[in-house]
Amino acid sequence: MEQADIRKIIHIDMDAFYASVEQRDFPEYRGKPVIVGGSPEGRGVVAAASYEVRKFGVHSAMPAAKAVRLCPQAIFVKPRFEVYRKVSQKIREIFFEYTDLVEPLSLDEAYLDVTENHINLPSATLIAKRIRKQIKEKTRLTASAGVAPNKFLAKIASDLEKPDGLAVILPQDAEDFLEKLEIGEFHGIGDATESKMKSLGIYNGSDLKEWSEIELVNTFGKTGRYYYRIVRGIDSREVKTDRIRKSIGKERTFSEDIEDMGWIKNFLRELSSKISKRMKEKRTAGKTVTLKVRYDDFETITRSNSYSHYINTTDDIANTAISLLEETEVGDRKVRLLGITLSNLNLSEKGRFRQLEIPFHETSRTKTG
């Protein structure tokens, strides 16, 4: 990697965000096992778990019924999303003091590219320290940070010293670090894939690195290319700032787990039809189709394809989403949720949709990571 190509990326991840806000605002919850979302009767899903309840094995996206079995004494709290959004906005304002290249992933985490920054500080580590300090002073909450030369490594780094920690992966240390990393610690490798890899003798990055790209593709499908790149620390994705919503999507959680591929494909066509209708109502179109899948064990993945031109028809959206199924384990694993999003919309600089005057007959397509 050439020095000029090395970027300085920070991944900020708030510690047990929703639960920490509740413990901050309500002293009686401090030091107690708090679960945000779900109910003591076992209905719903855990939205967030305090560190006290995580000791019992409870985590976000877990069915509340299982959380109750693991920790009967847990305190269930209804989410206050309006409060969480306000706190998140305060945190993002801190980010923008340092760089305009901020990519929020959710209310509680974001990537920042500080290769060039507003305070002309050459050390991304020092910037991360300052940001964490300001977050604590302004919100009375803690954040963990990862500093690395790309998004994939920064994401992994932010988990290394949680909670309230900071970890740095230097460019020259990246490959050695990844070789020693347990396979389950790789971001993007879920429980099912981890089990499959271990059955094949892949227990850490070093084991994974022994596999050629073609072997990984033959074994894991197109996702094998992703595994080949990440174990070598290769991630060219840019931090994309998006301060205006630039996507339209639909998703649904099913009351029963689904495994019938015919039904799934028909459902994706229904979703595509609804998205197409909304796109046409707004006189807009997009370039990137993202398929979201949540399996029956609550592992959630996304797969995307980007076109070189704008699309908004039901067929274009549906055919792309259905082709993305090939990059998932749908069919072999039951599905709890399916969603489609069309992004990279044709917006003006002011965030308004532009009238389209181009035909939609091109078929070229490029793959996004």
TrEMBL record:
The keyword Transferase applies. GO terms for molecular function: damaged DNA binding; DNA-directed DNA polymerase activity; magnesium ion binding. Keywords: Cytoplasm, DNA damage, DNA repair, DNA replication, DNA-binding, DNA-directed DNA polymerase, Magnesium, Metal-binding, Mutator protein, Nucleotidyltransferase, Transferase. The keyword Repeat does not apply. One of its GO terms (cellular component) is cytosol. It catalyses: DNA(n) + a 2'-deoxyribonucleoside 5'-triphosphate = DNA(n+1) + diphosphate. The record marks 18 as: Substrate discrimination. The active site is at residue 109. Mg(2+) binds at residues 13, 108. Its EC number is 2.7.7.7. It comes from the Bacteria. This is DNA polymerase IV. It comes from Fodinibius halophilus. The lineage of its organism: Bacteria, Pseudomonadati, Balneolota, Balneolia, Balneolales. The gene is dinB.
